[in-house]
Amino acid sequence: MNPAHLDHDALADLAEGLLDDTHAASANAHLDSCAECRERSAEIADVSRILADVPVPPMPAELAERIEAAITAEAMATAGVASISHHRRARERGKRHLRVIGAAAATVAVVGAGAFVGTELMGGSLLDGDDHAATSHAPPADPPRETPAVGPQAPFTVVRSGTAYQTATLGDQVTALVPRSRTLPALASVPDRLQGCVQGITRGAKPVLVDAATYENREATVVVVPTDSSTWRVVVAGPSCSATDSDIVEETTIPARTP
């Protein structure tokens, strides 16, 4: 028994009542003053309760006898001149390993945790965290989802003023609207068709207004582009306007006004 801490076999024997009175008293006294060993003892008790609830599938008698004989022989070979109590504990410990093996096999069948018992069946205690690192068996991660391709952001804003543009008042409507265009509701993103349409009209110039509205009661986009410091070019494009089809409905030039 480790002078600093109780090993797992000692804690398991204590939990199952396999220690004689002297060793049990010594172990309990150690637990009173050692938080680490108390925690490990609680873990062993939890595992024992979990395994006790799992139906143990029948194990072939020949295999059970071979495993028990091997465990008992190993315990006797490493013990030197052992006491009767020690031999009894070794035999009971062997039976405990058989119960763990059977219950663990059932656990694997139920939850598919195949690695739960892997290294423990070959030797070493079930919860010996110092010698065996716990293996995580997380489900495979979902493949990364492809992000839809998004075109470059338009170099202009498309507003929705709600204006019903008319031929007779087009110039006045544009002149009144441009100064407050920044306060109007705007599209969150510009469709590729509309972006191509506007860029075809502006030919690289920055528009002072792009308004998705109506013209003579038809859906239209009104684009206002400075031609010089004193005039604006006003273009009304129809609903089919795109980079390849201008669909120009109306075009005029009006005096510029500072936005």
From TrEMBL:
Residues 128-153 are annotated as: Disordered. InterPro entries: Anti_sigma_zinc_sf. The chain crosses the membrane at residues 98-117. Keywords: Membrane, Transcription, Transcription regulation, Transmembrane, Transmembrane helix. Gene3D superfamilies: Anti-sigma factor, zinc-finger domain (1.10.10.1320). This is Anti-sigma factor RsiW. The lineage of its organism: Bacteria, Bacillati, Actinomycetota, Actinomycetes, Streptosporangiales.
